[in-house]
Design goal:
The structure is a single chain. The protein is α/β, with parallel strands linked by helices. It contains 14 helices and 13 strands. The strands form four sheets. Strands 5-13-12-11-10 form a five-stranded mixed beta sheet, with helices on both faces. Helix 3 crosses helix 4, helix 5 packs across helix 7 and helix 5 packs across helix 10. One of its GO terms (molecular function) is lamin binding.
Length: about 450
């Protein structure tokens, strides 16, 4: 990432070209914090690469920089140590949620099957003192289902006077941050209002699960293990506490690479353990994913739903056509020579910039676009698929892509637990609470006049 435009705000991240080594900021361990000593003091300090927060208006504000410093192993181990030392009345329940795109990294890193990697990671986290380990796939179910409904609604509402299309996905925090802060109001109305899986998971943990455990949200410390650094910035986003009585949905985000580094340098005895579920004493014995090549699968699932709901067409296999490059794909639904639906996947900022230019010129023919900041998708998040010198580890990424492709697919509509949660937690699929908990609004700003001149 090379920033060539700076604002008047103090920039707290380093700049780099593709040939420069990544500049990192050490996140001190609890052993260094206020002279604390504990059983975790031997664990390695993880590094937060501030230059890898992909999409802001080319800087992080001073306030955000201070908050970002809390998104590290320092706060995580601080809570672990407090839980072992202080008065039990001050203890917090530690919950870790793992993104499905992180599991292939752990499987490849430790030469395990994806199920064994999940059990090993869960067992390690619990050996540290984590109480519950969840999978965020159920949160992605909600994000996809709400995106499906919103697309159908936008399709019916779209006209020359009311341009509701294309709908652009909102699951990638790097892309959303860039759209809000740099592109501004011409683009933000096109963003899907469904919350990202991480934000939905925050509500599930701090609202639904907290109620099940008879705990106030502030008594739960929620950590997300994710493939990219932008998830750290997403955890700081204003408005994510809606419906949680002021509590933040996600307290800390650790990248897969940070967690792997801790695992590699730990001498703790680990017993493998199955991932927990949000439903009592049940354990998750299988690993599932959605139908995405390297993502949560919004494009594939929304496409199938729209084809069926709008045109009565049942789509089994989805054919992706690579266009200008390997990170821009097109999917179409055609009947009698007419294109009924035209969807696209745009990964990486070069493709995003091309998309934005065509959209502003009115020459963008798509109804829906799955937008991701990272080339090759979420598996290529800068928090995991990297060499020690900060470059992409292509061999590791290819291995991870193969592992991810072999994980069984579970359509979000098929989850009985999701349907139960709609009724028990959200008071129905079309209730006001669904809008409050599962949807969001966007910051409206004037676009930067030279925002499209940024070199990515």
């Amino acid at each position: 990432l090379r920033c060539v435009k700076l604002t008047t705000k103090e920039c707290s991240k380093k700049t780099k070209t593709d040939d420069q080594e990544n500049v990192s900021v050490d996140a001190p361990s609890p052993a260094q914090d206020n002279g604390e000593k504990g059983e975790f003091h031997k664990l390695a300090d993880a590094k937060v690469f501030l230059s890898d927060c992909l999409a802001c208006d080319n800087c992080v504000t001073v306030e955000e920089g201070a908050q970002l410093s809390q998104q590290s192993t320092k706060d995580f181990f601080h809570i672990l140590n407090l839980n072992k030392k202080c008065d039990t009345s001050k203890h917090q329940v530690l919950v870790v949620s793992v993104c499905p795109q992180s599991l292939p990294y752990f499987a490849a890193k430790f030469n395990l099957s994806v199920i064994d990697a999940s059990r090993r990671l869960c067992g390690f986290l619990k050996s540290l003192g984590v109480h519950y380990v969840f999978d965020t796939t159920i949160a992605a179910d909600f994000s996809i289902l709400e995106s499906q409904k919103e697309f159908v609604r936008r399709y019916h509402q779209h006209s020359e006077e009311r341009r509701a299309l294309p709908m652009l996905t909102s699951a990638c925090p790097g892309w959303v941050r860039y759209a809000e802060r740099v592109l501004g109001s011409p683009l933000t109305p096109h963003l899907c209002t469904a919350k990202s899986p991480q934000q939905v998971m925050g509500s599930l943990v701090k609202d639904y699960f907290a109620r099940q455990q008879n705990l106030p949200p502030e008594k739960i410390f929620h950590v997300v293990v994710a493939p990219c650094y932008d998830k750290k910035l997403e955890a700081l986003r204003d408005g994510v506490s809606t419906g949680l009585n002021g509590a933040r949905g996600t307290d800390c985000v650790l990248t897969s690479g940070e967690v792997a580094q801790i695992m590699e340098q730990s001498d703790l005895s680990v017993k493998d353990s199955a991932v927990d579920t949000l439903f009592g004493d049940l354990k998750e014995v299988a690993v599932w994913r959605h139908d995405g090549v390297s993502s949560d699968g919004h494009l594939a699932h929304v496409f199938r739903h729209a084809a069926k709901e709008l045109f009565g067409e049942h789509v089994e296999e989805i054919t992706y056509r690579a266009l200008r490059n390997k990170d821009f794909h097109e999917v179409t639904l055609e009947k009698n020579g007419e294109v009924l639906l035209r969807f696209a996947a745009a990964y990486g900022f070069r493709n995003i910039q091309n998309m934005v230019l065509k959209l502003k010129k009115g020459k963008f023919p798509y109804h829906f676009v799955e937008v991701l900041a990272c080339p090759r998708g979420c598996l290529n998040g800068r928090g995991q698929a990297q060499t020690e010198d900060g470059h992409a580890d292509r061999a590791l990424l290819r291995q991870m892509e193969g592992i991810y492709a072999d994980i069984p697919i579970r359509p979000p509509e098929s989850s009985a637990h999701v349907q139960e949660l709609y009724q028990e937690w959200l008071e129905g699929t079309e209730s006001p609470k669904v809008q409050e908990v599962l949807h969001r609004t966007y910051q409206s700003s004037e676009p930067c006049t030279d925002s499209l001149d940024i070199k990515w």
